[in-house]
Automatic annotation (TrEMBL):
This is Agmatine deiminase. GO terms for molecular function: agmatine deiminase activity. Signal peptide: none annotated. It comes from the Bacteria. Gene3D superfamilies: L-arginine/glycine Amidinotransferase, Chain A. Keywords: Hydrolase. It comes from Novilysobacter luteus. It is an enzyme of class 3 (hydrolase). The keyword Hydrolase applies.
C-alpha cells in the first residue's frame, strides 16, 4: 500500500472483468425469460471477446443451464467464472460494488440498495456485495458498508476527481438533504473534489428517478456523450434540450467547455401502451471496446457512429437490448465493471 489518496477510477480504465447476474424464473424476467436470455448470451459473447466475465448464479441448476447455453453459443468458457449467490434481480449496476483504487490495493464501497427508493423488494440485492466478499471474489483491502442509499447508475466519474450526477435521483432518495450536504457526502465517500449536477433530463418508463447512466456519460476527462431528442413533438424534447444546454454550460477542470457528442433519438418503443426507456447512453465500456445497446431501430447505426467518434480507439459492438427495456433498464444497468487487479484468482 502507498500513501496516496483513494481514487474512483473511470470506466475506460483497464478492467479485470465485468460482473453480471444470470436471469432466472424467480426474477422479474420470468414472464419473458427466453427473450432476455438471448440478450444475456449476446452480452457474454461480446464481453468475452475482450475480457473475463463473472456470472452470479442463484443455484446449481441455474449455473448448469447458463453454462450449457453459453457453451452452445461458442463462448470462450475459459473467460467465464460462475459465483453461486442469491439475488432478487439482475441490475448489478445498482446493487454491485463501487470500487476505489486505494494505493496499491482496493476499497469496496457497499452503499445501501433500497430497490430504487423502495419501489421493489431488494433485501437480497442489498446483501450482494457482502456475499461476494465472503466468497473471496475480490482482492480488496477494505469493504466499507455505508448506510446511505446510492446506486452505481446514479454516478459518473472522469477518474480525475469530477463526479456527474442528477439532482432528481439523489433528492428523491434523500429528500431532507440539501444539495450542499449531498455534495459533501458524495465528495467524501467517493473522493471527488467537485460534483457536477444536472437538473434536467428524464426518460419515460425509467423507475430509477433519472439515473445519469441513461442520460449523460463521460467519454474522456474533457468529453461527454449524452442522449439527445430532435423531435419537438416528443414528450422528452423540452427536458432533453434543457439538459443539453446544461451540459454545454459545464466546464472542465481547466475551464474549457466539454466536447459533447449527442446520441440520436430512437423511435418510441411501446409495450401495451407503456413507453419504454430506450437510451443509447446506457453503453458499457470494456477493454478495447464499447458495448452499445441496440434496439432494432434505424438510429442504432447512427448511435454507433457517434460512439465511434467519442471513442476513436475502441471497437463499437452492438448488443441487442430491446428485451431489457421491458423492465426499464438496458445494457449498462445489468453490468458492473471491476478494475484491473481487483478480481481474486
Amino acid at each position: 500500500m502507498t500513501g496516496s489518496a483513494p481514487r474512483f477510477p473511470a470506466e475506460w480504465e483497464r478492467q479485470s472483468a465485468i460482473l453480471i447476474a444470470w436471469p432466472h424464473a424467480e426474477t422479474d424476467w420470468a414472464e419473458r425469460l427466453g427473450e432476455v436470455e438471448e440478450t444475456y448470451i449476446a452480452l457474454v459473447v461480446a464481453i468475452t471477446r475482450f475480457q473475463p466475465v463473472l456470472v452470479c448464479v442463484a443455484n446449481d441448476d441455474v449455473e448448469a443451464y447458463a453454462r450449457a447455453r453459453l457453451a452452445s453459443a461458442r463462448v470462450d468458457m475459459e473467460r467465464v467464472r460462475f459465483i453461486g449467490i442469491d439475488y432478487d434481480d439482475t441490475w448489478l449496476r445498482d446493487s454491485g460494488p463501487i470500487t476505489l483504487r486505494d494505493g496499491d490495493g482496493f476499497r469496496l464501497l457497499d452503499f445501501r440498495f433500497t430497490g430504487w427508493g423502495g419501489k421493489f423488494e431488494a433485501t437480497r440485492d442489498d446483501e450482494l456485495v457482502e456475499g461476494l466478499v465472503e466468497r473471496d471474489t475480490f482482492r480488496a483491502d477494505r469493504h466499507d458498508s455505508i448506510d446511505f442509499a446510492l446506486e452505481g447508475g446514479a454516478i459518473e466519474t472522469d477518474g480525475a476527481g469530477t463526479l456527474l450526477t442528477t439532482w432528481k435521483c439523489l433528492h428523491e432518495r434523500h429528500p431532507q438533504a440539501s444539495r450542499g450536504e449531498l455534495d459533501r457526502r458524495l465528495s467524501g465517500w467517493l473522493h471527488q473534489d467537485r460534483v457536477l449536477w444536472l437538473d434536467h433530463g428524464y426518460l419515460e418508463g425509467d423507475d430509477t428517478d433519472a439515473h445519469i447512466d441513461t442520460l449523460a456519460r463521460f467519454a474522456a476527462p474533457d468529453a461527454i456523450v449524452y442522449q439527445g431528442c430532435n423531435d419537438p413533438a416528443d414528450s422528452h424534447y423540452a427536458e432533453l434540450r434543457a439538459m443539453a444546454a446544461e451540459l454545454a454550460a459545464l466546464r472542465t477542470r481547466d475551464g474549457q467547455p466539454y466536447r459533447l457528442f449527442e446520441l440520436p433519438w430512437p423511435e418510441p418503443v411501446l409495450d401495451a401502451g407503456r413507453r419504454l426507456a430506450a437510451s443509447y447512453a446506457n453503453f458499457l465500456i470494456v477493454n478495447g471496446a464499447v458495448l452499445m445497446p441496440a434496439y432494432d431501430d434505424p438510429a442504432d447505426s447512427v448511435a454507433a457512429g457517434v460512439l465511434q467518434q467519442a471513442f476513436p480507439d475502441r471497437e463499437i459492438v452492438q448488443v441487442p437490448c430491446r428485451p431489457l427495456i421491458w423492465q426499464n433498464g438496458s445494457l449498462h444497468c445489468i453490468t458492473m465493471q471491476l478494475p484491473e487487479g481487483l478480481v481474486a484468482s
